[in-house]
Amino acid sequence: MLMGLFTSWAAFIASGEMAVAYYIAHIPRGHIWPIQNGGEITVALCFGFLFIATFGSGPISVEALMGSSHRKG
To answer: How many domains does the chain have?
Structure first.
């Protein structure tokens, strides 16, 4: 994801991993809300990765540079 190559797919997979981590590690603590079971960071990362998966890697990523060079030629 750092280079911007296959960012949407990698972020989507990472978002799913964070969701699974939340349900495995934090839900068994007895509370559903992240503020009560210590899962704030996990939920924030899950939604952050989902945001990146939805909106893409941005204009300075490798994917964007490859796409722009194909359009010119």
So the answer is: 1
